[in-house]
Amino acid sequence: MQAMVLHRTGRDLRFEERDIPSPGPGEVRVRVEACAVCRTDLHVVDGELPDQRVPIVPGHEIVGIVEAAGSGVAGIAPGTRVGVAWLAGTCGVCAYCREDRENLCESAAFTGHTRDGGFASHVIADAAYVFPLPPDADPVKLAPLMCAGLIGWRCLRALGAARNVGLYGFGAAAHLVAQVLRWEGRAFHAFTRPGDEQSQALARSLGAAWAGGSDALPPVPLDGAIIFAPVGSLVPAALGAVRKGGRVVCGGIHMSDIPSMPYRLLWGERELVSVANLTRRDGREFLELAGRIGIAPKTTPYALRDANRALDDLRSPGAMAGNSSNWPGGSASRPRRPPTPCGTPTARWTICAHPARWPGIPRTGRADRHRAQDDPLRPAGRQPRAGRSAAGTDRRRGRPRSLTVFFAPAGRRRIAACPTCGSRR
Q1: Same-domain check for residues 261 and 291
Q2: Residue 157 and residue 43 in one domain
């Protein structure tokens, strides 16, 4: 089998050839047809989630064909198309499992995080946690439903019967939820990065009552809002847009720190809740609904070997998390970005060695700051700040890095400089 493997967080995935695994008792082996790329995969690669296992094959929005079943598997025969989602298994005996809240299980397993996922040609899954799918459907269109769709559906259920709904972060989950809201006859308002005209146009094409930047207020008070973007500062913004008695649902698995905010934003019986993981009930309900109303995800194909490129593209402003599918033999994407002219490999981490700590560079760092001042990407009148780290090491890993990163002001493009030849990008 083929797989893209994460051996160390903060590094690129590595293509590997492996033996095709055999399913154990209660398991099935699935030949992967498509696996969507999710922002959670970025959190896995960047090491932002607890209990991260490495090496690991990421990917948790999987659609494929069952090739073999282990002992004790009933109801899923070889040749069946199935979906494999984030929740890979639970203990079944803890208090949460007994209360029918398996998404909160203390010993849950997660696809692409604690057990190998779908950035591969084959995957092993617990037969009790896969979802039978229509044999005649397009697997590339089904894949984003396995996380973006399921989490979006759980958020929508948590929101209740709100009629005017705000969607903060109009990516994969939001554009699927928008289709459900339109089918239900509810109005939705899309909030994007300020200036993201592409996402706002997509929202309007899906029937948004209003679309604008997250720094703006909607034309009418919202009954409720869902925050899909992993940005903590959106919490007070959403609370400020919701009327008294409204609810704000945080739908991400990871979010930056929520800033301090005045109590008046929460006062008036406004509620702030989070959604964690998903349940098999969520999957059954949403997949049945999606097939009935014809939910259509926006997708971009990538070959399996281009999984790193798909992840890199997902980091770009305006990228739609979960809208990109990769599978063995898929169409090729753009070539990877080449190393710096001197051959020094680029690093993905933005917390890098301070320029003053590298051999041959003045300890004051003034020479590097001067070079950065001449960069045409630097906003006029702004002094870029040097990369933050002590003693020339990555604070997360304690090892030297190959790039120096100048952090531009918020919302601006970062400037990275090679410590060997001084080239920047």
Answers
A1: no
A2: no
- pTM, whole model, 2 decimals? 0.76
332 assigned to some structural domain: no
- 393-412 burial by CB neighbour count: b if 16+ within 10 A, else e? bbeeeeebbbbbbbebeeee
For residues 295 and 231, membership in a common domain is answered with: no
d(CA 229, CA 218): 17
Long-range contacts of 342-346 (CB under 8 A, 24+ apart): 342/418, 342/420, 342/421, 342/423, 344/402, 344/403, 344/418, 344/419, 344/420, 344/421, 345/402, 346/402, 346/403, 346/416
**How far apart are alpha carbons 176 and 179 in whole angstroms?**
5
- Interval 345-399: pLDDT, tens: 444 333 333 333 333 333 333 333 333 333 333 344 444 444 443 334 444 444 4
Rounded to whole angstroms, the Cα distance separating 150 from 132 reads 15
Which residues form the domain of 268? 150-274
| Bond preceding residue 50 cis, omega within 30 of 0 | no
Pinpoint the alpha helices (H) of 270-418. Answer: 280-293, 307-314, 366-373
